[in-house]
């Protein structure tokens, strides 16, 4: 197959997140046996053309004009280059590819609606517009096969309109996350971008309850973002400056080490498409403590690989942590081994093979 993929960001973008990791895993696997080109937006300081993990990256458009840029590029260039299929990764606002691509089949990838979380990230008029545009753009994909990462995300899609075909295919976990390092007693961690929607503030407030009862505990927060200064102010306000540490951006190897040494992973986000970091923590034998919200309730199953409470209910979530920390070492190890066993079902090789099968079937049905 000759495959053209489109996404607003590529894996090397400074603000790349789970959606970009997800697409990279798929494209890297496909590139083993197929020709793959990813079209994305320009980023200062990064070459416009780049070979990455076996596939070609073309950075050709401004972020705010990507829909129009990709449409123009398709009409003037790509439709004449004999692509067999297009992968449209809807990680922000969809580019509405079915409106202008008619002679080549499309498979879309959908993670989650940003919805009301946009109002925490953007000024009101812009948030309102983006929320409207997000839903409106999805309507053009009604008859396009859509691969989504969780049952929660599928439910979101079906509430907008009855899509023709939605396939649930979860994220996978890299093998290098399956480690069995010794745990550091009382160490909790949080890993991810420091944005309002991730609600790291609730992790800090939750930890303040934990530390009050268990003074030996500590919290390590890894990640960068616009909320960092506010979060540090909250730590100071709660007198936790000697108990909470901000690491900033960390490498993949450092992330694995942190997750594997922690006794618990705090994941108090308001919404996710799937919650890949929760499963990475699980692979490292670290139970997840979070809220029962879209995406998280799919990747974290109560009493399997973590413990969930209703959103915002840190007192209820604290009770789970209190019980967990009260167990002896043998009981904790039993829980940790069970958590890792749960994670082993999410294998990237199997998932990417299934995605390849979806592409081949879509091409076959199109012709």
From TrEMBL:
Q: Which residues form a coiled coil?
A: none
Q: Which SUPFAM superfamilies match?
A: UDP-Glycosyltransferase/glycogen phosphorylase
Which positions fall inside the Glycosyltransferase subfamily 4-like N-terminal domain? 17-176
What highest taxon heads this organism's lineage? Bacteria
GO terms for MF: glycosyltransferase activity
UniProt keyword list: Transferase
Does the keyword Transferase belong to this entry? yes
**UniProt key word Cell membrane:** no
Q: Which residues form the Glycosyl transferase family domain?
A: 179-326
List the PANTHER family: SULFOQUINOVOSYL TRANSFERASE SQD2
Q: What is this protein called?
A: Glycosyltransferase involved in cell wall bisynthesis
Q: Which organism is it from?
A: Brevinema andersonii
């Amino acid at each position: 197959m000759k495959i053209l993929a489109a996404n607003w960001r590529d894996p090397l973008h400074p603000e790349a997140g789970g959606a970009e990791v997800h697409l990279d895993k798929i494209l890297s696997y496909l590139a083993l046996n197929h020709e793959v080109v990813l079209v994305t937006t320009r980023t200062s300081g990064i070459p416009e053309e780049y070979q990455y993990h076996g596939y070609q990256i073309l950075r050709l458009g401004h972020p705010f004009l990507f829909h129009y840029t990709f449409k123009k590029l398709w009409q003037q260039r790509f439709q004449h280059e004999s692509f067999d299929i297009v992968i449209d990764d809807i990680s922000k606002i969809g580019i509405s590819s079915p409106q202008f691509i008619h002679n080549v089949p499309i498979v879309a990838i959908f993670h989650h609606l940003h919805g009301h979380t946009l109002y925490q990230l953007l000024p009101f008029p812009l948030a309102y517009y983006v929320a409207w545009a997000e839903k409106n753009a999805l309507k053009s994909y009604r008859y396009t096969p859509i691969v989504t990462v969780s049952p929660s995300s599928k439910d979101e899609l079906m509430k907008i309109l009855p899509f023709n075909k939605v396939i649930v295919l979860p994220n996978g976990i890299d093998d290098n996350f399956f480690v069995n390092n010794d745990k550091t007693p009382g160490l909790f961690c949080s890993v991810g971008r420091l944005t309002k929607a991730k609600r790291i503030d609730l992790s800090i407030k939750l930890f303040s309850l934990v530390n009050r009862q268990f003074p030996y505990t500590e919290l390590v927060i890894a990640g960068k973002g616009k909320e960092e200064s506010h979060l540090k102010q909250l730590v100071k306000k709660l007198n936790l400056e000697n108990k909470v540490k901000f690491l900033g951006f960390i490498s993949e190897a450092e992330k694995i080490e942190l997750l594997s040494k922690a006794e618990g992973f705090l994941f108090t986000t308001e919404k996710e498409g799937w919650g890949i970091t929760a499963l990475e923590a699980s692979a490292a034998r670290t139970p997840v403590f979070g809220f029962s919200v879209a995406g998280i309730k799919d990747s974290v199953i109560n009493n399997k690989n973590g413990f969930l409470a209703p959103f915002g209910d840190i007192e209820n979530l604290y009770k789970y942590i209190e019980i967990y920390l009260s167990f002896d070492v043998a009981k904790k190890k039993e829980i940790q081994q069970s958590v890792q066993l749960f994670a082993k079902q999410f294998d990237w090789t199997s998932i990417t093979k299934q995605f390849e099968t979806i592409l081949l079937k879509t091409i076959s049905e199109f012709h």
